[in-house]
């Protein structure tokens, strides 16, 4: 019987494991088995024979019929060894440093940075002709009344005296809001920009109707706010949930465009309430219950 043992041998260097050797040990040759060993000279054969211990002598072929062969390990004779050097990958010899790239270490991820928003003030327009006559205006485009123009001039002076410096003034496209914003802009020397999404909520069939007609057209679809009865649904009107989403869009865009800056939005009562609700992260129903938003009142969001 012939036994062949193959086991790895580790060679050490000054910096740890340098290579692995696969050593082959063969016990008792058999026909047809070829072992590749270095070519030996007669002098080397004599030297090996003189130094070989008697107990480790290679058995002759006639001894293969022995009924009780010696234990395998005790009788193993090294006939030849072929070493395969397997250099280890350098990456396994040291710990890799994490976050080695500057993109991983400078400033952190965007999610880790605190969000700095704009400082937003909201101003309702001065009194217009519809306000003066108790008419629901919505998208009606009436000018300021005489009182409304005085209100606009007064709030412009207060803003200037306060020392507030606006990076931008945005206005609804409706005349009553744009007139108010223009007076303020001229006083504080800031050009007014029009934003269509600051327009008042569309009142539908109630546009141009007196306040007293709200129950007639809205029925029980109303909500009592502070000093104002709000109609929730009538034919052709913009619902408050849509107005609320529009307000959220305004805040998102203004915050993104004016990080850390002061901005004034000149708009209307209903959209102004929705801006307050969106900023406070409450629903539109809660927003309608906020304190009354008077003409030319300025609210800090």
UniProtKB/TrEMBL annotation:
CDD domains linked: HP_PGM_like (cd07067)
UniProt-listed Pfam families: His_Phos_1
Keyword vocabulary terms for this entry: Signal
Annotated InterPro entries: His_Pase_superF_clade-1, His_PPase_superfam, PG/BPGM_mutase_AS, PGM_Phosphatase
GO molecular function: phosphatase activity
A single GO cellular-component term on record: cytosol
Signal peptide (UniProt feature, chain positions): 1-19
Record: residues binding substrate: 124-131, 176
PANTHER family xrefs: BROAD-SPECIFICITY PHOSPHATASE YOR283W-RELATED (PTHR48100), PHOSPHATASE C1620.13-RELATED (PTHR48100:SF44)
Protein's name in the database: Phosphoglycerate mutase protein, putative
């Amino acid at each position: 019987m012939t036994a062949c043992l193959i086991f790895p041998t580790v060679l050490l260097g000054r910096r740890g494991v340098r290579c692995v050797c696969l050593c082959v040990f063969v016990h008792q040759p058999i026909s047809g088995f070829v072992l590749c060993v270095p070519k030996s000279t007669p002098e080397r054969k004599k030297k090996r024979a003189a130094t070989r211990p008697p107990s480790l002598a290679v058995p002759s072929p006639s001894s293969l019929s022995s009924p009780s062969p010696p234990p395998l390990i005790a009788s193993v004779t090294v006939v030849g060894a072929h070493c395969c050097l397997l250099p280890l990958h350098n990456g396994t010899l040291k710990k890799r440093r994490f976050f080695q790239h500057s993109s991983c270490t400078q400033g952190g991820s965007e999610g880790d940075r605190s969000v700095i928003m704009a400082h937003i003030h909201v101003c309702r327009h001065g009194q217009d002709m519809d306000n003066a006559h108790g008419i629901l205006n919505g998208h009606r485009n009436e000018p300021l009344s005489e009182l409304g123009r005085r209100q606009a001039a007064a709030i412009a002076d207060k803003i200037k005296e306060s020392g507030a410096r606006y990076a931008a003034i945005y206005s609804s496209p409706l005349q009553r809001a744009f007139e108010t914003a223009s007076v303020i802009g001229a006083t504080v020397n800031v050009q007014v920009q029009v934003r269509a999404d600051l327009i008042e909520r569309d009142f539908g069939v109630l546009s141009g109707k007196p306040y007293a007609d709200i129950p007639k057209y809205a029925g029980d679809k109303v909500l009592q706010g502070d000093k104002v009865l709000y109609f929730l649904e009538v034919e052709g009107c913009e619902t408050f949930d849509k107005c609320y989403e529009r307000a959220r869009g305004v805040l998102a865009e203004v915050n993104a465009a004016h990080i850390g800056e002061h901005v004034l939005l000149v708009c209307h009562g209903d959209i102004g309430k929705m801006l307050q609700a969106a900023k406070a992260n409450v629903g539109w129903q809660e927003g309608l219950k906020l304190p009354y938003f008077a003409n030319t009142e300025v609210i800090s969001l």
